Amino acid sequence: MIDLHTHSLASDGTDTPGDLINKAHARGITVLGLMDHDTVAGWEEASQYLRTGMSLVLGSEISCQTLDGTSVHMLGMLFDKENTELAEVLATTRDNRLTRMSRIIARMNEAGIEITIDDVLAQLAPGATLGRPHLADALIAKKIVKSRDEAFTELLHNNSKFYISHYSPTPEDAIKLIKRAGGVAVIAHPLASLRGRTVSIESFGSMVEAGLDGIEVSHRDQSTEESELLRGIVDQYGIIATGSSDYHGNGKLNELAEFTTKPEDFEALEARANARRVVRK
Question: What is the C-alpha to C-alpha distance for residues 10 and 125, in angstroms, rounded to an integer?
Fold first, then answer.
């Protein structure tokens, strides 16, 4: 089984990279993608824990934003982590997340929700990328909500009055950065309407022109109708369809390998990188 989109404690997952590898192996996954948000911090540990017979696709889920303010997540896979241009953009995005979090907390405080930046940082693993799930965990710890799902449904969704965007490249710029770093670009859950505003169908043309390699067609947050629409776009542009769990450990209901990628599609995706970077054991 091939699951190309998972997260660890290096961003907003709840498993260490090593534990994630062990769970994936127990689940029967043969190819696993580690896509922590705006970071490569979990790559080394995941590689060290890789089990015999498994392959590891290293990458990052890069935060993007369209010119009209729609949040987009771009999976950059199999890129050269020594590429300074991409590394600098990821670092800038991570640094901006702290300012953004402080502004979100200020809005919540104005609404009478008692939470502090220290409460949030207490939920963050050393070196991890800060994100709204850590705020959700702080709200749980303060008994303001019962779960991450409740936190996002009630307070932290993209249409919430508390939502604040943060610095991020456009999807097209992110794709170009990934390609210049030798990797492949797959847009994650682009029609997940439950998360808030989604990208327009027309926008796929400019992303493909920028070098988009694939679309995450099969995902828990996309309906059957949305997935079928995306399959049509894949066929239209001659790019690649993937399916993934977007597993976050205990942080989300998503289960490892609940959606997977076909072997032939993964082979086509890997061939688009400028070097063979899949870690195998």
Answer: 7
